[in-house]
UniProtKB/TrEMBL annotation:
Keywords: Oxidoreductase
Gene3D superfamilies in UniProt: Medium-chain alcohol dehydrogenases, catalytic domain, NAD(P)-binding Rossmann-like Domain
Lineage of source species: Bacteria, Bacillati, Actinomycetota, Actinomycetes, Propionibacteriales
Domain Enoyl reductase (ER) per the UniProt entry, residue ranges: 10-330
MF terms (GO), sorted A to Z: alcohol dehydrogenase (NAD+) activity
EC number: 1.1.1.1
InterPro entries: ADH-like_N, ER, GroES-like_sf, NAD(P)-bd_dom_sf, Quin_OxRdtase/zeta-crystal_CS, YIM1/Zinc_Alcohol_DH_Fams
Listed Pfam families: ADH_N (PF08240), ADH_zinc_N_2 (PF13602)
Name of the protein described by the UniProt record: Alcohol dehydrogenase
Top-level taxon of origin: Bacteria
Originating species: Kribbella aluminosa
Length: 333
């Protein structure tokens, strides 16, 4: 089968099209013919080796973290899926590889595709929708009447998180550029801060939750808009000791994460708030719940551009510009 593979981190080729073997199935695996794959910023970071201590992939490996497609075969113990089913997924972090014609996915990480979406639309959702769900439902337990700030509202995670937070009954604020004001308002944002003309930290206050995909100074400034007891959830880092425990990291890696997160953790404690790092995990059951929300009209995907599979490298380069509204997708011929 055709697939885009990584042979070496930060190589001049970066990502190359190659012929590789169709994956073999374990008893709980499902073989999916990929019809479309979402393209995410994390793909570029993995390509460049930024996650090699956390995600030690064996070279060469196939890149890609989102998919929608059709089941073609199932392992002997699979009961939830049969050939012909239309599905979507974010494979487990140790089994990525959606920039390919086929992939083997454990059945627990797979869900039936929202029936109202095209393959390209469905492929745009798993990673960003799971991130929003695990941040707002699992981690923050957002309830009606709370105030939620979602940074970078026109991005992939932002477009999903605004809609989910609104569905959960929150008052939703977001930051975006002037060109995207109408987009985020249409997704349900109650308060929109144009970061080119306003400083969110001076106009927002008493928020219960901040979801931050930017990190750095933006994350530290976000602590100031939280009410006492509020929480900032970062998906761009810094990783913290709790995350190290979650992935069973070595003592050295846990120490490194403790050092990396010390500054923001200290600032959070001084302000009477908290910070936690979220690294989204695969979850077929959650994707099933998200699919129901999509089919009920609660969440809609935002797709900026669809590239042909052969142009996967160009699609990733476009994502790296940071100008995409919502998601970028590659689609099989």
């Amino acid at each position: 089968m055709k697939a885009f593979v990584i042979d070496r981190y930060k190589s001049k080729d970066g990502l190359r099209l190659a012929d590789v073997a169709v994956p073999e199935l374990a008893e709980h695996d499902v073989l999916v013919k990929i019809m479309a794959a979402g393209v995410n910023p994390i793909d570029a970071k993995i390509r460049d080796g930024e996650f090699k201590l956390i995600l030690p992939y064996r070279m060469p490996f196939v890149l890609g973290n989102d998919l929608a497609g059709v089941v073609t075969d199932v392992g002997s113990a699979v009961r939830r899926f049969t050939p012909g089913d239309e599905v979507y997924a974010r494979p487990d972090k140790d089994r990525i590889g959606t920039f390919a014609e086929f992939i083997a996915v454990h059945e627990r990480d797979l869900a039936h595709k929202p029936r109202t979406l095209s393959m390209a639309e469905a492929a745009s959702l798993p990673m960003v929708a799971l991130t929003a769900w695990q941040a707002l439902v699992e981690r923050a337990n957002v309830t009606p009447g709370q105030k939620v700030l979602v940074h970078a509202g026109s991005g992939g995670v932002g477009t999903a998180a605004i809609q989910l937070a609104k569905h959960l009954g929150a008052t939703v604020a977001t930051t975006t550029s002037t060109a995207n004001l109408d987009l985020v308002k249409g997704l349900g944002a109650d308060v929109v801060v144009d970061y080119k003309n306003e400083d969110f930290a001076t106009v927002l206050s008493d928020y219960d939750v901040v979801l931050d995909p930017l990190g750095g100074a933006n994350l530290e400034k976000s602590l100031r808009v939280l009410r006492p007891g509020g929480t900032a959830i970062g998906i761009a880092g810094p990783p913290d000791p709790e995350f190290a425990d979650e992935i069973g990291a070595s003592w050295f890696l846990k120490l490194a994460m403790t050092v990396l997160s010390r500054r923001v953790k200290r600032k959070a404690r001084r302000g009477g708030v908290s910070y936690s790092f979220l690294f989204m995990r695969a979850g077929g059951d959650q994707l099933g719940q998200i699919a129901a929300l999509v089919d009920d009209g609660v969440i809609r995907p935002v797709v900026d551009r669809v590239f042909p599979f052969e142009s996967t490298r160009e699609a990733l380069a476009y994502v790296e510009t940071g100008r995409a509204k919502g998601k970028v997708v590659v689609q099989m011929s």
